[in-house]
């Protein structure tokens, strides 16, 4: 997994072995996970997040879509956190 960002209690990441799949991002908090496609930004799966949380997460992903797609285009196998200032922000 390649962590792209951490915002409060949320971790935004992609799997390192993604080659043929359309651009996506996972969001994780404790045992909850959600997967969003990036073209277009849409919820693909949700395991445990409330509707309110999903709405906030989808908005954050949408706001950062261009940066996330840029990372996707430049993907690497490096498993370090990508330092992109203010990539995503979630309001509690």
Structure description:
The protein is of the alpha+beta class and 92 residues long. It has one domain (2-73). It is built from 2 helices and 5 strands. A 5-stranded antiparallel β-sheet has the order 1-2-3-4-5. The N and C termini lie far apart (25 Å). Mean pLDDT is 81; it is low at 76-86.
The total count of strands amounts to 5
Strand-and-helix sequence, N→C? EEEEEHH
Percentage of β-strand residues: 25-35%
Helix-and-strand structural type: alpha+beta
Uncertain parts: 76-86
Strand order of the largest sheet: 1-2-3-4-5
| Distance, first to last CA | 25 Å
Give me the secondary-structure topology:
Blueprint: E1 2-7, E2 10-14, E3 24-29, E4 32-38, E5 41-47, H1 51-63, H2 65-73
């Amino acid at each position: 997994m390649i962590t792209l960002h951490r915002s409060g209690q949320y971790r935004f990441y992609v799997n390192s072995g993604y080659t043929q799949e359309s651009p996506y991002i996972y969001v994780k908090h404790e045992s909850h996970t959600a997967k969003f496609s990036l073209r277009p930004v849409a919820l693909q799966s949700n395991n445990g997040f409330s509707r309110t949380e999903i709405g906030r997460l989808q908005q954050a992903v949408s706001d950062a879509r261009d940066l996330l797609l840029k990372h996707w285009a430049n993907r690497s196998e490096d498993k370090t956190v990508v330092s992109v200032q203010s990539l995503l922000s979630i309001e509690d």
